UniProtKB/TrEMBL annotation:
SUPFAM superfamilies reported for this sequence: Glyceraldehyde-3-phosphate dehydrogenase-like, C-terminal domain, NAD(P)-binding Rossmann-fold domains
Catalysed reaction equations from the record: myo-inositol + NAD(+) = scyllo-inosose + NADH + H(+)
Keywords, in A-Z order: NAD, Oxidoreductase
Biological role: Involved in the oxidation of myo-inositol (MI) to 2-keto-myo-inositol (2KMI or 2-inosose).
Protein's name according to its UniProt entry: Inositol 2-dehydrogenase
UniProt family annotation: Belongs to the Gfo/Idh/MocA family.
E.C. no: 1.1.1.18
Assembly: Homotetramer.
Group of enzyme by EC: oxidoreductase
PANTHER family assigned to the protein according to its UniProt record, in alphabetical order: INOSITOL 2-DEHYDROGENASE, PTHR43593
Entry-linked InterPro entries: Gfo-Idh-MocA_inositol_DH, Gfo/Idh/MocA-like_OxRdtase_C, Gfo/Idh/MocA-like_OxRdtase_N, MI/DCI_dehydrogenase, NAD(P)-bd_dom_sf
Recorded name of the encoding gene: iolG
Domain Gfo/Idh/MocA-like oxidoreductase C-terminal span(s) in chain numbering: 136-325
Keyword Transferase part of the UniProt annotation: no
């Protein structure tokens, strides 16, 4: 039957996921929404037939109408809702980050292992982006030989007022941590962070941009420019350098115009626009797998590994040195 979804957190992402499930996704409906801000929850529920509004996730998860949970509250609130969903035996799509640090991610990892089967897909949506999928297929084919280096650019038009220098690593570069691990099929073993003179475009005190270097257990070197006040738009680009060639995605050249002595195109302004198709595919894949009784996509292990790299990255930034990443052995459930 149709999957009844509870959406926890109805802010920017949550409200967009409610719209998506309502208008784009087949096989699911929004049965309940939850937000600590009662007015916000009510306003979002109003637009959806038969959707109830709550301020406490526990009430929504206990409802007979709810078969699955989409978590889009802020990262620090994820752990409590994940554990509550496990207690109700409900499948979960959890927005990145799984949790804000490695210790809390490990608690979720242990709780899921106690269930004895996977319950969670983590919202690393780039794995569902058409361009990233092409790049992954090319790398897996080994047509260009082995990958040696990966260059990433991650640019946001502007950062929200509460953004900190650490968040460039654990809120933004966390996506490059995941795509690096996924594209290469390797773990990240060390992180170094270099900081140029801050941009005058960035708020006072924010160390923006930064250059983040990863080393992997397969010997690949990965660099990421994170630049969250570039002013001109939202850009995510990746170029892999392999033994017999290179491949690059994210140029956004879907249409090039020529006019008045210039050529060019447009640049997306935010992630909601740039990754619209990826979010659609991510949520549809979750709904389809859930209805088959399966769990696919980025796992709690992937969420934990990213959290561990984030911690190393924030230390590398603060201490100005190379920091190694220590992961526990990968449990059997995630092989
Ligand atoms: P937001 O601040 O716009 O929305 C968060 C909402 O959650 C707010 O309405 C807030 O009132 C509510 N909330 C806070 N604590 C809650 C709790 N305990 N229970 C229920 N609701 C609670 O934030 P956002 O930008 O929508 O981010 C939400 C999540 O999505 C975060 O985990 C963030 O990292 C992630 N995110 C992912 C992407 C992506 O590209 N995949 C992009 C942006 C944000
Ligand atoms: C945000 O939370 C995201 O997840 C976006 O994808 C990223 O581009 C942005 O920098 C983050 O703040």
């Amino acid at each position: 039957g149709t999957l009844g979804v509870a959406v926890i957190g109805t802010g920017r992402m949550g409200a967009d996921h409610v719209r998506r499930i309502n208008e784009v996704i087949s096989g699911a409906r929004v049965a309940a929404v939850v937000d600590v801000d009662a007015e916000r929850a009510k306003a979002v529920a109003q637009g959806v037939d038969g959707c109830t509004a709550h301020t406490d996730p526990a009430a929504a998860l206990a409802s007979d109408d709810v078969d699955a949970v989409l978590i889009a509250s802020p990262g620090p609130a994820h752990e409590a809702t994940l554990l509550a969903a496990f207690a109700h035996d409900l499948p979960v799509l959890c927005e990145k980050p799984l949790t804000p640090d490695a210790a809390s991610a490990l608690r979720v990892l242990e709780a899921e292992q106690r269930l004895g089967r996977r319950r969670v897909q983590v919202g690393f949506m780039r794995r569902y982006d058409a361009e990233y999928l092409r790049l992954k297929a090319l790398l897996d084919s080994r047509e260009l030989g082995r990958p040696l280096m990966l260059h990433n650019r991650h640019r946001n038009a502007s950062s929200p007022p509460w953004f900190t220098s650490a968040m460039l690593i654990n809120d933004s570069v966390v996506h490059e941590m995941d795509v690096t691990r996924w594209l290469l099929g390797q773990e990240i073993t060390a992180v170094t962070v270099l900081r140029p003179v801050p941009s005058g475009n960035a708020p006072e005190g924010l160390e923006d941009p930064q250059l983040v270097l990863f080393e992997t257990d397969g010997g690949v070197i990965v660099d990421t420019e994170i630049n969250v006040n570039c002013g001109f738009g939202y850009q995510v680009q990746a170029e892999v350098v392999c033994e017999r060639g290179t491949a690059r995605i994210g140029d956004g050249h879907t249409m090039v115009t020529n006019a008045a002595g210039r050529w060019g195109g447009t640049i997306a302004q935010d992630f909601v626009e740039r990754f619209a198709d990826a979010y659609d595919r991510e949520v549809q894949a979750w709904v389809d797998a859930t209805r088959r009784g399966e769990v696919t996509g980025p796992s709690v292990w992937d969420g934990y590994a990213a959290a561990a790299v984030c911690e190393a990255g924030v230390r590398a930034q603060r201490e100005g040195t190379r920091i190694t990443v220590d992961l526990i052995a990968r449990p059997a459930l995630y092989h």
